[in-house]
């Protein structure tokens, strides 16, 4: 698929406000989008107005203060996930046991505070080792210890920590929980009571893992879904293979190779009752507020027909 230039993107139809929340054509899953740190999204009042006025049912929130999460819910908007505080992600997978414990305690305190004050139960993270140079087996042991403590501290709250399978960056690709083998190890050790999957097919496509087969295996553990696609550049794949991360890029839904209708059909078949949240990481639509909102609108409109 040819890459769209930012100039071409700005020639598309203007974004039109639509106060009625929209849903996917298959499964009628509510459509959300993931909050990023751009200025128009960090102003909570502005974020609420945009979300309500443009057909979205809600957002995936960063690790906002509890009061702001309550404010979003009071506006009648859903919250698909709330981020585990980012500063603790690496510390949960630290070789230092004392640091792991401190980070686990901080994460659990935040999760329990959000749960006590709101109806949010899903919390988002990526398993990112503090020391990427260590072996995957070593870092997996640290991860099981760190997240195992979090699980003990949030047990009984109804909260779930959801792992997104971002594999990390070239050349280490050190993130854990991104492959079927990783997840089997994690769920065997930690169980699925306090842990699950934030399903994002774009990462699986990038790694060469069939997202439909993945979903069929892990559907019982999937509690949230990201709508992000991946374009595969066949010429770059031929020239460089998959060694240097030059053969793929993230795109908005419908501009890559993901079979969205098939995935939604699988979610329906397996009883998924959650939301689908657009995660905008397509470089064509990232440079300005106008382009970001255009990318969200195009994604939303595609999903209403998928």
The CATH architecture classification is Alpha-Beta Barrel
Spatially, the strands of the biggest sheet line up as 1-2-3-4-5-6-7-10
- What is the mean pLDDT? 93
Structural class: alpha/beta
CATH superfamily: Divalent-metal-dependent TIM barrel enzymes
> What is the count of helical runs?
12
Distance between the terminal alpha carbons, to the nearest Å? 19 Å
Element pattern in H and E: HEHHEHEHEHEHEHHEEHEHEH
- CATH fold name: TIM Barrel
Characterize the biggest β-sheet. 8 strands, parallel, barrel
User: Helix coverage percent of residues?
Assistant: 40-55%
Spans of at least 5 consecutive residues with low confidence: 1-15
**Measured on Cα atoms, how large is the radius of gyration?**
19 Å
């Amino acid at each position: 698929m040819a890459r769209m230039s930012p100039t071409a993107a700005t020639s598309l139809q203007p974004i039109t406000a639509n106060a009625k929340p929209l849903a996917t054509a298959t499964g009628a899953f509510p459509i959300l989008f993931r909050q990023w740190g751009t200025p128009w999204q960090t102003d909570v009042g502005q974020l609420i107005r945009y979300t309500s006025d443009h057909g979205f049912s809600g957002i995936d929130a960063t690790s906002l203060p509890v009061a702001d999460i309550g404010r979003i819910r009071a506006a009648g908007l859903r919250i698909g996930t709330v981020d585990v505080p980012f500063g603790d992600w690496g510390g949960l997978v630290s070789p230092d046991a004392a640091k792991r414990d401190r980070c686990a305690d901080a994460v659990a305190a935040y999760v329990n505070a959000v749960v006590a004050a709101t109806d949010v139960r899903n919390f988002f993270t990526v398993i990112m080792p503090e020391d990427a140079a260590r072996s995957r087996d070593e870092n997996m042991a640290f991860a099981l210890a760190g997240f195992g403590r979090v699980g003990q501290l949030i047990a009984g709250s109804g909260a779930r920590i959801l792992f997104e399978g971002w594999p990390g960056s070239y050349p280490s690709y050190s993130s854990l929980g991104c492959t079927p083998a990783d997840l089997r190890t994690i769920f065997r050790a930690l169980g699925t009571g306090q842990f699950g999957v934030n399903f994002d097919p774009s990462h699986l496509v990038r790694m060469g893992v069939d997202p439909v087969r993945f979903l069929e295996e892990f559907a019982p553990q999937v509690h949230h879904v990201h709508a992000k696609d991946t374009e595969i550049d066949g010429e770059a794949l031929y020239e460089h293979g998959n060694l240097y991360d030059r053969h793929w890029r993230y795109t908005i839904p419908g501009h890559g190779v993901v079979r969205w209708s098939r995935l939604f059909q699988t979610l329906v078949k397996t009883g998924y009752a959650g939301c689908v949240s657009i995660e905008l990481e397509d470089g064509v639509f990232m440079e300005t507020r106008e382009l970001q909102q255009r990318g969200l609108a195009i994604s939303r409109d595609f999903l209403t027909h998928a």
